[in-house]
Write a structure and sequence with these properties.
Elements (H helix, E strand, L loop, with lengths): L10 E4 L14 E3 L1 H87 L5 H49 L1
Antiparallel strand pairs: 1-2
Helix pairs in contact: 1-2
Length: 174
């Protein structure tokens, strides 16, 4: 602040001389009105600057408080639904695997049926070939569903554990 530097004030009148005896309350000198006004102006500027700094710091503090509140509320919200999200994700992944497995099983049953019919003398070789192509596609979908289950279930578990950790840290700090 500007007041930290030494200010020069102009003396208008001097009422005592060096070595003269004085007592408490005796006037020693009189400053010029101009130098008093200059100093008063500097003091007012310093008060204004300090007030602006204070207001800026208060605003910064309020912003930090809002941000911390938001983070807290977000963590609580994420933690409160983490279990349900995890279970829903695992259920959806398992349903996809089950549906793919069911389709593969049905296609395998058809392949077996067509082969039995061919073995008994019926000409279903074209149907067997078509179904073999379908089976191969369904089997690849099953492998993809199992792979997605493995990968996404690990990701879902990680997200769930992170949310639970955040929630437990919040409860510890309260």
């Amino acid at each position: 602040y500007p007041l930290r530097r030494q200010r020069q004030m102009c003396i208008r009148d001097r009422y005592v001389s060096v070595g003269q005896q004085v007592k408490a309350g005796d006037a020693l000198l009189k400053l010029t009105d101009e130098s008093i006004e200059k100093y008063r102006k500097k003091l007012k500027e310093a008060v204004t600057e300090a007030s602006a700094d204070y207001n800026s710091a208060a605003l910064s503090s309020a912003k930090e408080k809002v941000s911390a509140n938001y983070s807290y509320n977000l963590s609580v919200a994420e933690g409160s639904v983490a279990q349900e999200e995890y279970e829903a994700t695992i259920s959806e992944l398992q349903d996809a695997v089950d549906e793919a497995q069911e389709a593969v099983d049905e296609s395998q049953a058809l392949l077996t049926y067509y082969q039995e019919m061919i073995d008994s003398g019926m000409d279903l070789s074209e149907s067997l070939a078509d179904e073999q192509g379908n089976y191969d596609k369904l089997y690849n979908k099953l492998k993809a569903a199992k792979s997605a289950y493995t990968t996404k279930s690990v990701e879902a578990e990680k997200k769930y554990k992170e949310a639970m950790l955040s929630l437990s840290l919040i409860h510890i700090s309260e």
